[in-house]
Amino acid sequence: MTAAADPPQRADLSAWLAVAAGTLGAFMATLDISIVNSALPTIQGEIGASGTEGTWIATAYLVAEIVAIPMAGWLQRVLGLRTFLLMAAGLFTAFSVVCGVATTLVVMILGRVGQGFFGGVMIPTAQTVIAQRLPPAQQPVGVAAFGVTAIMGPVLGPLIGGWLTENISWHYAFFLNLPVCAILAVLLLVGLRHEPAKWHLLREADWRGIIGLTLGLGGLTVFLEDGQREQWFDSSLIRWMALITVTGIGFLFWGQTAARRPIIKLKLLLDRQFGSVAIMGLVLGVVLYGTSYVIPQFLATLAGYNALQSGKVVLLSGIPSLLLMMLVPVLLKRIDIRIAVGGGLAIMAGAALLDANLTAASTGSAFTVSQLLRGVGQILAMLFLSQAVIRSVPAADAGDASGLFGAARNLGGSLALAGISILQEQRVWLHSRRLEESLNANSLSVQDYLTGLGRSAGSPDAGLRLIGQQIQGEALTMAYNDIFWVMGMVTLAALPLILFLRPLPQGAPAASVH
Fold first, then answer.
1. pTM for this one?
2. Average confidence (pLDDT) over 174-187
């Protein structure tokens, strides 16, 4: 009774500055996931990368982030929260500069790996700052602020990257992090106190798991990205990558049995509810990162959109997400989790299938309805799944569950980008051959059409080149339709998993998860 009568504890200015620092760091990291998407065609051209190689620029960040997220808590305990965040922000900015000055694909990928790792550790740490520096009564404000950054960062990325590319240079999509990091450093120095490092914890780390996670994910990514181009196991590179992947997975499972505290607690996946949530998180990553990559590529390649115009189309999905974010407390209390997650996944599947009917003449307006629907679907699915992550495991495992869910979602994005590269290459070839087979060289209508093209172009050879370009354009459009159809069907296939979800406890406060 005495405790209940006490006035509620209030956070001071330094606590709010610390929360602002953590949120700003998380926003910077989530923004850079997608800031290159709309500018990717321009970047590829300047560093000499092909369309399929360009997916590495996006994939490298996601893979590094998957490795980093489970390590964030351990690194924080070793270095102390302020020192850890200052080092992460500084190195993230340094690797951003590497990306900004890159002139080759290799240098760009190295920079993106560094960005992904040090940006990845800043995201879950923002939640730690909220939990440590804010009293329970004020934590929902911090959780809401973090939620807005988690949703809006990937959505605003293509728009900001596009604007900088069109008005200044794509290099500034990376140099932008320099002033932001300076502000972040000041906030951290003022808002957090110094904690001594605990170097003895280095001996307790699950080094087998860390090595296994790095080798397994790195090898798997190279295997999937380059397998089609290298003719799979006909290539020694792919055979080596397969061996590295298997070795990495072996080390990861060795760490599960030998380490006192594994880097990532895979046994949580054996829980029926959490395993279902993780699979749905994987699917969520496939759709979120897959669509944010494919839409700018389609608009740049077939509609002739510049980076800024593509970014505006991607931004549409953030509008309903931001509006619904304000209704979080009401939604959590009034809507059953199975209905919310099922409805969110169904809406996202419908949006993907809606985009599977594009034509070579489609422009950004063709994505308006699907993008708005996608924004509604992703906030419903992500919001309620994030609550299910925390509620489906014991309180002691909440941090591990959160990291595993974030890793699953990013893994879905990485697999989506690799799958898109493979699917696009295969389906463009298939559709091109089918279209060519339908054009009979002895057909009078085909000959008349070619003659007309030749007259308008000034020579018969130019007419042949034009019809070749038309075939490629139509084949590429059909390949993009296939990609959207696959994403829609994968999402629908995950819908039955909602039956394994349990209702959220009544009156429980909203939990935060990346």
1. 0.81
2. 92
